[in-house]
Design brief:
By secondary structure, this protein is an alpha/beta fold. It is 51% helix and 17% strand. The protein folds into four domains: 156 residues, Beta-Lactamase; 99 residues, Signal transduction histidine kinase, dimerisation/phosphotransfer (DHp) domain (Helix Hairpins, Orthogonal Bundle); 189 residues, 2-Layer Sandwich (Heat Shock Protein 90), CATH 3.30.565; 128 residues, Response regulator (Rossmann fold, 3-Layer(aba) Sandwich), CATH 3.40.50. It is built from 16 helices and 18 strands. Strands 6, 7, 8, 9, 10, 11, 12 and 13 form an eight-stranded mixed β-sheet that branches.
Length: 694
């Protein structure tokens, strides 16, 4: 609320004067109006009596002889009234017969003020009844009364009707009424002024001065004078405010003293905190530096390990495609499976490092859940059949067919959990089941409608189960249910920790139920069937949030582990250049391309690749990132900036991190293939080139 623009000592008298003036003016106007009305009524009665009596006298005189002197006398007496401006006797022809103004005799009334009342004259003659009128300016009274004129010689009784016309001036009477009203108003307003002054003095001494004392004390308190007190006397509300103010000032003084003591303590604590923060800042810098060094070390180790692994796995893949005896096949497959197991360990360590540093980001692309689960089951079916385990899956009909999410990471979770279930199961079965709950509806745009669903996926096995004293340690990095398990079954202990992190990134949670015990992070609305506890095996559950898209374009992922026979094509004239410094990798890539029907040239580094491009035009370049003398990134930049025909450049590298992929795409490379090279993956990128350039 806005404050009043004037202090109380000025606003109170101003309000009193304003209100008193309005009341006085209104009272005076009402007094004058009433006086005018009363004057008009009294004067109207007086004129009516005078005109009526005069008309009756004239009626009587006109019945007698020698009336001329008498009527002149009557008119003269009426004219002696100073307020009676005009007296006229008008005959039946509307000619002035007699008047107090001699110059008006014997002239028509149209030349006088009576001309404006011709219609009233006619009415009075017809009704033979007098009438009193108020002029339009309300300053005069007009009296019109009928009189019977003298009988004509041939008449038995009078037939002619004349008019007695009075014009009475109201101004003197109204002036007198105004003066009387003014006197009464002055007396009233004087009394009202005295009352307002008395009221103002009362407020000045009982309110405004005491309020000013309170304001001054408040300002003094605000400026820091904590010893100020008002101590007003009396028993009204202001005294109660004064007592409350004094009590508040005492409390503020006391609290200020306490706060000062607390501030001293706080300054000491803040000094200690600042010292601790400086130490933490130094520790954070060291931790960040250590984390960066660890990530760089893991990335470099990944590159160094993947490079020879590409030679091992690549050569084994090529060897497996040749004609071998059963014993040779067994030896080759053993080497291949060992290499892939080592690659899985490397991938787990890299994934855990990316998750730990917060650099792992999920992708969003359409997929069919059934295809993913079927692909994983097909991949693990040999392991299950070797142990005579039934590997089955069941998808509830309410699960949407077309989904949007990171299918590769979902595939990784399923590989970890289903692989563990098969690993720790000796007989029976492993069952994968999927149900869904509607989550919410999203509107991305006016073209596509997207709905969110929560999927709950269960992997149930009939294996050895997990003891109660070990189940709580699951989902922790480098932890397994039993220390002896790593010796018996193998593994890094990272699979469940990575799966938990990926599930969390997908908006879900993961938990396990085994031998009547529960561990992990089950949802609040999940109900366990503990009335019939499991005597064997484990059930792993996890939920994720996915989007169901109406009729999207689905790009189903094909298992890249083995090339299909129909993928092998006949001899192609496609001109390919391999930029690779490692001799073994050169051989692996060359032989792999040969199996796919391609012949390629080899450059040992980026400088040789640029020189060969000057001599010959290549359509596709398989470019390694790290090479001596000139790396693949620098070579690609130079190629993209040149005016020569632009080849299709595919990164062929042991650097598997997402940031490495982005670096390659940013400098102008068209695709990205990691080592060890899968034949199907290499066939895919070359097939895509042929499709876009056919």
């Amino acid at each position: 609320m806005k404050s009043f623009p004037l202090p109380l000592r000025f606003s109170i008298p101003a309000i009193l004067i304003f209100c008193g003036s309005l009341l006085g003016i209104n009272s005076f106007n009402q007094e004058v109006s009433d006086a005018y009305k009363k004057t008009e009524i009294n004067t109207k009665n007086y004129v009516a009596i005078s005109a009526g009596q005069t008309a009756r006298i004239l009626d009587y005189l006109y019945r007698r002889t020698d009336i001329e002197d008498a009527e002149i006398t009557i008119i003269s007496q009426l004219g002696s009234d100073p307020n009676l401006n005009l007296v006229m006797v008008i005959d039946d022809q509307n000619i002035i017969h007699l008047s107090n103004r001699y110059e008006l005799r014997d002239i028509p009334i149209s030349k006088t003020v009576a001309g404006a009342y011709t219609s009233e004259l006619t009415t009075v003659r017809t009704k033979l009844a007098g009438n009193i009128l108020l002029s339009q300016d309300r300053k005069k009274l007009i009296a019109i009364y009928p009189i019977l004129l003298q009988i004509l010689p041939n008449e038995i009784r009078p037939s002619r009707v004349g008019i007695l016309f009075f014009e009475y001036d109201l101004n003197p009477a109204k002036q007198q009424a105004y003066n009387d009203a003014l006197k009464r108003s002055l007396i009233f307003n004087g009394s009202l002024t005295i009352f307002c002054l008395g009221l103002w003095f009362f407020f000045e001494f009982s309110l405004t001065r005491r309020v000013s004392q309170l304001v001054a004390a408040s300002n003094s308190l605000a400026e820091g004078n904590l010893n100020v007190r008002t101590r007003l006397s009396g028993s009204d509300e202001l005294v109660q405010i004064s007592v409350a103010f004094d009590h508040m000032a005492s409390k503020i003084q006391e609290n200020t003293r306490i706060l000062q003591q607390e501030l001293i303590k706080r300054e000491l604590i803040e000094a200690q905190l600042q010292e601790t923060n400086e130490q933490l800042s130094i520790s954070n810098v060291e931790l960040a530096s250590a984390t960066k060094a660890k990530s760089e070390f893991l990335a470099n180790m990944s590159h160094e390990i993947r490079t020879p692994m590409n030679g091992v796995i690549g050569m084994v893949e090529l060897l497996a495609m040749t004609t071998l005896s059963e014993e040779q096949k067994d030896l080759v497959y053993t080497v291949r499976d060992s290499g892939k197991a080592l690659l899985i360990i490397i991938n787990d360590i890299l994934d855990f490092s990316k998750i730990e540093s917060g650099n792992l980001e999920l992708e969003q692309h359409p997929f069919v859940l059934k295809d993913i689960i079927k692909s994983v089951c097909n991949l693990l079916s040999k392991q299950a059949s070797n142990k005579e385990i039934n590997l089955e899956y069941s998808i509830n009909p309410n699960v949407p067919i077309n989904l949007l999410g990171d299918s590769s990471r979902l595939r990784q979770i399923l590989l970890n959990l289903i692989g563990n279930a098969i690993k720790f199961t000796h007989q029976g079965r492993v069952l994968v089941s999927v149900i869904s709950n509607y989550h919410q509806e999203l509107t991305k745009n006016t073209v596509r409608k997207v709905e969110e669903y929560e999927l709950m996926i269960t992997i149930q096995d009939t294996g050895i189960g997990i003891d109660s004293n070990r189940i709580k340690q699951l989902f922790q990095p480098f932890t397994q249910a039993d220390a002896s398990i790593s010796r018996k079954y193998g593994g890094t202990g990272l699979g469940l920790a990575i799966s938990k992190s990926l599930v969390n990134l997908m908006g879900g949670t993961i938990w396990v139920e085994s031998l009547g015990n529960i561990a992990g992070y089950p949802p609040q609305n999940w109900i366990s069937d503990l009335e019939t506890p499991q005597n064997q095996g484990s059930s792993f559950y996890f939920t994720i949030i996915v989007k169901a898209v109406l009729s999207p374009e689905i790009n189903s992922q094909i298992n890249p582990d083995q090339p299909k026979p129909e993928a092998i094509i006949t001899q192609s004239k496609l001109k390919i250049l391999i930029a690779e410094d490692n001799r073994i990798n050169q051989k692996v890539v060359t032989l792999t391309l040969k199996k796919l029907g391609y012949i390629a040239d080899i450059a040992n580094n980026g400088i040789e690749a640029l020189a060969m491009l000057e001599k010959e035009s290549y359509e596709v370049i398989l470019m390694d990132m790290q090479m001596p003398e000139m790396d693949g990134i620098t070579a690609t930049k130079i190629i993209r900036q040149s005016d020569q025909p632009q080849p299709w450049i595919i990164a062929l590298t042991a650097n598997s991190l997402e940031e490495d992929r982005q670096i390659c795409l940013d400098v102008g490379m068209n695709d990205f293939v990691t080592k060890p090279i899968a034949i199907a993956e290499l066939n895919r990128v070359l097939s895509e080139y042929l499709k876009t350039h056919s």
